[in-house]
Amino acid sequence: MSPLNFTHILTQAVDELSESESYKGLFHQHKDGEPLPSARALCEVIELARSILFPGYYGNSTVNSRTIKYHIGVNIEKIFDLLCEQILAGLCFRNDEEHSTHMEVCREEAANLAAQFISRLPGLRQVLATDVEAAYNGDPAAESFGEVIFCYPAIKAISNYRIAHELLTLGVPLIPRIITEMAHSETGIDIHPAAKIGSHFTIDHGTGVVIGATSIIGNNVKLYQGVTLGAKSFPLESDGKPIKGIPRHPILEDDVIVYSNATILGRITIGSGATVGGNIWVTEDVPKGARIVQTKAKK
């Protein structure tokens, strides 16, 4: 049958898909000259950031102690240019007709935010070094820091999270969430960029870990695969939409261990030094130093 015989079907589909009611809430009105976020560019940003934070492990393999300053300088310039454009895209995406901002003002703000982010890279490297150390010390199978940096999905996910978190605290819209979702797709580890996580953090194996937006995690905390730090049912507004911005995820204090497939829900506190066993639900506070495990069924 000739494709021409289907013209009326195709035309009807175009007409229906072009009706404003059909795309209400699903359409972004792009303005000429405004960039859109680019997953490809953000992948390059992450690769450049990793090459700066872990020199010799990512990026140019010829880097050495004599050339490291040159290589980092080149990569800093590249990441600054890429970040300026991507942050600008986020700012443009945030702005609507009611809160429109002149393009040049947005471009200047984007450059300022990109520069501020780069100024935080030394501190970012320091805290990531503690995460690498925690992963190495927490896994008898790890033979070197290099193996941890190269191979462990937790380090990829945590480095994306820490990069995204810095951008979020600077006020960059949209881009931080894209960065953490990139790591989620790559590793199966879902960390919201708004979560607050201390030093020496590690995730063993990692697949299926979920850390919600208002989670607070102290220092020297270890999670195993399948752990969820989630929310219980949350209050709704009069129109049935969830109320935004309320703390609804757990607080894990220092030195907490949570074993595989444990689910911790709501704004509860797991006290410092506590251990949460695998395959259990926790919806109430856990005292400091406590050990919570499944109860054996009585025969």
User: CATH homologous superfamily name of the largest domain?
Assistant: serine acetyltransferase, domain 1
Helix content: 40-55%
* Arithmetic mean of pLDDT: 91
Count of spatially separate domains: 2
**What letter string, H or E per element, gives the SSE order?**
HHHHHHHHEEEEEEEEEEEEEE
How many helices does DSSP assign? 8
Assess the beta-strand content as a share of residues.
Answer: 5-15%
**What's the count of strands?**
14
Radius of gyration (CA) equals 23 Å
Q: Determine the CATH topology of the largest domain.
A: serine acetyltransferase, domain 1
CATH class of the largest domain: Mainly Alpha
CATH architecture annotation name of the largest domain = Orthogonal Bundle
Q: How many angstroms separate the termini?
A: 70 Å
Largest β sheet strand count, sense and barrel closure: 5 strands, parallel
Global outline: globular
Task: Please state the structural category.
Answer: alpha/beta
Stretches with pLDDT under 50, minimum 5 residues: none
Strand sequence of the main sheet, in spatial order? 1-4-7-10-13
Molecular structure report:
By secondary structure, the chain is an alpha/beta fold. It has two domains: 35-188, serine acetyltransferase, domain 1 (Orthogonal Bundle), CATH 1.10.3130.10; 195-234 and 244-299, UDP N-Acetylglucosamine Acyltransferase, domain 1 (3 Solenoid), CATH 2.160.10. Helices cover 41% and strands 11% of the residues. A five-stranded parallel β-sheet has the order 1-4-7-10-13. Strands 3-6-9-12-14 form a five-stranded parallel β-sheet. A four-stranded parallel β-sheet has the order 2-5-8-11, with no helix packed on it. Helix 2 (39-53) packs antiparallel against helix 3. The chain starts with 6 loop residues before the first helix and ends in a 7-residue tail after the last strand. The mean pLDDT is 91.
